[in-house]
Amino acid sequence: MNPDCHSDPRLRTTSVFPVVNYLFTTLVSRAADNVLKPWPDAAFENFFSFRPFVVTTLLLGLLCIARQSKADEPVAVASNESAPQQSLLVDELARQIDIAVDEQNAASGVPVVEQADADVILRRTTLDLAGRIPTAREREWYLQLPAEQRRQLLVDRLLGLPDFDFHLRNSLDELLLPNRPNDGEFREYLLTAVQAQRSWSQMFQEMMLAAPAEGPEKGAAQFLKSRVRELDDLTNDTAVMFFGVNISCAKCHDHPLVSDWKQDHYYGMQAFFNRTFSSKKNELLEKPFGSVRFKTTEGEDRDAALMFLTGAVVADQTPEYSDEERKQLDEKIRNLEQKDDAETVPVSFSPRRALIDAALADQEQLYLARNIVNRTWERLLGTGIVDPPDQMHSGNPASHPQLLRSLAEDLVAHNYDLRRLIRGIVLSQAYSRSGRWTSESVPPGSQTFAVGASRAMTPRQLAASLMVAARSAESWPTVEETTANPEEWLKRRTDLENQANGWMREFEQPGEDFQIAVDEALFFSNSERVQNDLLRDGGDRIVGAVKAAETPEQAAEILWAVINSRSPDENEQQIVRDWISGEDEQQRLTQVQSLVWALLAGAEFRFNY
Amino acid sequence: MTGRKRLAGSPDLSSSGLSRRGFLGGATVGVGGVLAADMRAVNGLRAEEIASELRRGEKHVILLWLAGGASQLETWDPKPGAKNGGPFGAISTNVAGIEVSELLPQAAQRMHQTAIIRSLNTKIADHGRGADLMERGRLDDPGLKYPDLGAVVARELGRLESTVPDYVSLYTSTEGRRKGTSGFLGARYAPLFLAEQMSPPNSALHESLSLDQHRDRAALRDLLSKRFTADRRNSTVGSHNSAYQRVQGMMASAELFNVEQEPADVRARYGPTQFGEQCLIARRLVEAGVPFVKVARAWWDSHGQNFETHMELCADLDHCMSALLDDLQERGLLEKTLVITLGEFGRTPTINASLGRDHFASAWSCSLSGMGIRGGVVHGATEPEGQTVADGEVSAGDLFATILSAVGIDFTHEYMVGARPTPLADFGSTPIETVLA
After folding, report:
1. Digit-coded pLDDT (tens) for B117-171
2. How many CB pairs under 8 A join A and B?
């Protein structure tokens, strides 16, 4: 690490310098990182074989060190958020991400925006891991941490909070049941699974098996139960949400744009679900036999094989039934559909079980892993490595195919551990870039990940953040207090989650090309709830705290710290000075409420940027 | 920050402590900011797009939705004398050779403005999916939710910076109540749906605020949002400010829902029924620039007592539709407004044991009047007993293509939904040229 390299004016004259500097420091920091640990042979080999230009880079980099004054400083210390290589030091995945993204941008001459400042990184990371804005007290804690450690400390703290479980649960819920935002059983199951740190592959199995259960596990069946009336929904939604593949176009004809998808794939996937039915007791069961027959575009009638998306065909091990046996079984199934106390029907071969096995056996395409990696990436960086995320096929190549592949392999190698993946992404520099684009030129495309994205908050993020921001800084516990008393924080956070649940219906779930509706602006502008709840006066409320401020400057500090998670700039200080005049109590209250409202309804608050 | 200087030099303002508009004058985001919300604006609008942008807000559609399914035999396709023709006769209209049910005497005198389609064959005869089909012109595909007609018209004819709603849906009955859907077009084009109350939610000023305070607060919001929006070229960020720019206009447009502002003689023309008042609201909305208004009248689902039901409902439809056409005509709005009568399906030509008619989607009717329509025309025919289409079969997609063509929207235009090209009217739809002007 040579942070002063940039300040050497002689070096600035050469345009290749930043790239060389980057590549060199990458290598040095990788080396440094490895030196701190035992250096296995494999790592050594990997280090020197991972890119062909390594030698050139090293030579140029050594030249750089030779020409600058502080070459002998310790190499493995990053000084602040904007130091270029911090992320590379702390997390293996973060390092992989940055190498892949930066290398591609350097190679294609894409300008990369600088790292965001500490406040932005704190807010973004907290929204993404805790599902809410940071409290002012968390911000104080964060800013006093040693700069070179604070991101890692922040991320590891957030990963350990109940907030993380709530938010990951919410994110998975939004992915898997987008049309049923308040399915209590499903949400309870997801929370239980996330709290128990179950692997993604295990959750996938539980949702696909959908075995009858009691208690929190019961909700695992909701993914399929909510779709059981439409075989096409079972088929396509499973393909879209678990494998990143939308094969609906291949229902009526081989996909017109994608040579990968044939009718055989669509009906092959359908064959895994066509025996699924719901009993009178609302349990999700499978019939002991049944197949899918479809008409090809050539008019030929064809029986669908149990075919996974890779083309792998699962042998159908359904036993032979005589016509008489079939008749009896059909009668029993009818009973199950119509009567609470019907006799169960034994099933010796489960196509859904076969689908699970096929998906987990897929070591070639890694559909299950690639999809959740890409979905997680999209959630955290605004755009998927494959975009749109349900179009994983040869006609829509990934922006960084090797990276996607290696992240998916890493996920599989680490037992589909979503926490590890999320930690790696949020510790990367690709994640922590500023979202400001000040140049006149057209900004780089979203799949370069060269500029931070501005993402509309989800309804639950926005609702929870409003609940945080409507209270005074002091009404939230300090970081030390939450650490010392995690049960108390779990209770507070659960209350917050429940409160947010009551507000989220006012907002729309963001989708592709999301446009904020005027209904939302009207809700903020005129509703009783905003006026009487968010803008309520009181000692523990933001309005009360700002009203009690002794100077306009102090009022501005409180407003911006609590609502926008940063300090006001001079211009904003001046606006507050001009806005708050020393008039009577009632006028002052109205003025303060207007300021609080203007920030809560402001663009900055609405986005995760 | 010129505004700030003005405040500093304005002792009156600080003593009143109320109106800070002078302070914030010039703070509101102009048209440029609003247009930036549109994805197309990111690449710069081309000249013809600017021209078409300016023309937006000048064309309208009013859909009179006959919820539950009106009988074609008691409206647009009477078959007096047929085995199941029912007790009502056919009357001649002011267009030679065209007859309608005697239950529609006023509409009969306005046939020169109206085209009848008698050959809908839409096949789906259950309320839910039938309404899905007729509202959207096709059924949803797995993983793809289509926008309904109102959302498409709002998207294509609405002004981005419009101060009025784009899509208003009025429905007071509980039977068959459906909100409507903007599908993949998203919340921006979702209907303003009014069911319990006849004024839009959150459109009234809160009692604790004066109008000046409300406006000042909004201007302060705009000002404080600028630092954030300045360096972010993102259509979603742009849409946030656009939404707030529309608030004042939407609040002002709440008055459009108040029929008491109309002169007594105008209200009398529409009559005292709820449907009449809502048709009048539709005219007020259209006059103010709203592209799409749906007024639903329920409940036509006459499985029993079909003839009594239609005597009552047809009288209301006949009167209100005619008042609406006349009013639009007199105000010069009919040439810019398409008026449709449509439901989810028609009713069986056979009469059941309860003297009712059941669901029937194989051979039924709808009407189109006004903008882009060749009046005094009948398209298609059913065979004498009305069981099947005899001539000129029309699908839901064809009807969609016809409606869009009438108001000048290219129905073949494709939205890209992810990687999937999706035309406004379903693939293979053909507009009915005979009814188009």
Report:
1. 999 999 999 999 999 999 999 998 877 889 999 999 999 999 877 888 899 999 8
2. 182
Q: Is B141 within 8 Å of A248 when comparing Cβ atoms?
A: yes
Q: What is the DSSP letter of B349?
A: S
Q: How many domains does chain B have?
A: 1
- Facing residue for A522 by CB, picked from B18, B220, B250: B250
B231 to A438: CB separation less than 8 angstroms, yes or no? yes
- Candidates B139, B232, B235, B290, partner chain A, best to mutate (most A CBs within 10 A): B232
The domains of chain A are located at 5-77, 229-361, 516-608
pLDDT of A593 > 70? The answer is yes
Pairwise CA distance, residues B213 & A486, whole Å: 43
B240–chain A nearest CA distance, Å: 5
Distance in angstroms (rounded) separating the CA atoms of residues A422 and A168: 10
- The pLDDT assigned to B240 comes to 95
pLDDT in tens, B323-370: 999 999 999 999 999 999 999 999 999 999 999 999 999 999 999 999
Residue B296 lies in a domain: yes
- Residue B330 near residue B90, CB atoms below 8 Å: no
A86 touching B (Cβ < 8 Å): no
Q: Which of B203, B221, B237 has its CB closest to that of A607?
A: B237
Å from B106 to nearest chain A CA?
39
Chain A (428-457) residues lying within 8 Å, Cβ to Cβ, of chain B: 435-438, 443, 453-456
> Does B149 fall in a domain?
yes
- Across the beta sheet with B292-297, what order do the strands follow? B192-194, B167-170, B292-297, B60-66, B337-342, B364-370, B114-120, B377-379
H-only helix segments in A108-177: 118-130, 136-144, 150-160, 162-176
Q: Which is nearest to A352 in space by CA: A199, A264, A223, A190?
A: A223
Residue of B182, B224, B241, B290 to mutate when probing chain A, most A C-beta within 10 A: B224
Query: Which CATH number goes with the domain that contains B321?
Result: 3.40.720.10
Whether the model pTM is above 0.90: no
Which structural domain range is residue B305 located in? 60-198+234-435
CB within 8 Å of chain B, chain A residues 499-538? 508, 510-523, 525-528, 531
Q: Is A388 on the interface with B (CB under 8 A)?
A: yes
Q: Is it the case that residue A73 has pLDDT exceeding 50?
A: no
Which value, to the nearest 10 degrees, does the dihedral of the CA atoms of residues B247, B248, B249, B250 take? 50
Cβ contact B240–A607 (<8 Å)? yes
Q: SS in 3 state form for A510-559?
A: CCCCCCCCHHHHHHHHHCHHHHHHHCCCCCCEHHHHHHCCCCHHHHHHHH
CB spacing of A516 vs B235 below 8 angstroms: no
Among A458, A420, A401, A455, smallest CA distance to A173 is for A458
Tokens linked to A61: 């980099």
Instruction: Answer yes or no: is B183 within a domain.
Output: yes
